[in-house]
Amino acid sequence: MTATERSAEVLTAATSAFAESGYAATKTDDIARRAGVSQPYVIRLFGTKQQLFLAVLDQVCGRIEELFRAGATQAAPDASPKDRLDSLGSHFGDHFLTDRNLPRVFLQGIAAASEPAIGENIRDHFGRLYNLAKELTGATTYEVRRFFGTGMLLIDLTALQVTDIDDADTPPWATEILTNLGEDGI
């Protein structure tokens, strides 16, 4: 296996571990075990646990950016800003929210924002994603703010594992939120 492939395996293992345990509670030993490498190898690849977490956040937020760009290409050239936002949101929901680890890592990044380097990283990513959504759609600040509010709600529901309205175990309140999500223009 090449160093690039091994590094990708470590990132995948780290994504899963950080999604489950958060930044503070995750140990590099656990990540190494999941990746099938030694803990010193993980440190050699990424330097510190914090640098590894930042690499995972970069990958997760890069995925959101890719999905926004892809969603924008699916909207009709003459689509309204709302229709463009809907296209971004649909693509995001279909591809990002289906892997529970990605939304959970995003939330872990927000939760660890009191760490200066992590806070700077997640704030930078969030701002870039907000500006990208505005740029790709031509939507107003109000429309993009509502779009992000809905997106964060969906990330929360995904992390809570209550996004399947056909599942009998999904609480009624979650079913109501999910069923009526588009009724008030969100």
Task: Give your account of this protein's structure.
InterPro entries: Homeodomain-like_sf, HTH-type_TetR-like_transc_reg, HTH_TetR. With about 190 residues, the chain is an all-alpha fold. The chain has a domain at about 50-180: Orthogonal Bundle (Tetracycline Repressor, domain 2). It is built from 9 helices and no strands. It has helices at about 5-25, 30-35, 40-45, 50-75, 80-95, 100-110, 115-135, 140-160, 170-180. The longest helix has 26 residues, at about 50-75. The radius of gyration is 18 Å and the shape is globular. The mean pLDDT is about 90.
Tell me the number of helical segments per DSSP (H or I, 4 or more residues long): 9
Give the name of the CATH architecture of the domain at 50-179: Orthogonal Bundle
Mean pLDDT over the residues: 92
Percent helix: over 70%
What structural category arises from helix and sheet content? Answer: mainly alpha
Largest sheet data: none
Low-confidence stretches: none
Q: What fold name goes in the CATH topology slot of the domain at 50-179?
A: Tetracycline Repressor, domain 2
The beta-strand count equals: 0
Question: CATH H-level name of the domain at 50-179... which superfamily?
Answer: Tetracycline Repressor, domain 2
- Termini separation: 46 Å
Level-1 CATH class name of the domain at 50-179: Mainly Alpha
Q: Output the helix-strand order.
A: HHHHHHHHH
How large, in whole angstroms, is the Cα Rg?
Answer: 18 Å
Shape: globular
Q: Which percent range describes the beta-strand content?
A: under 5%
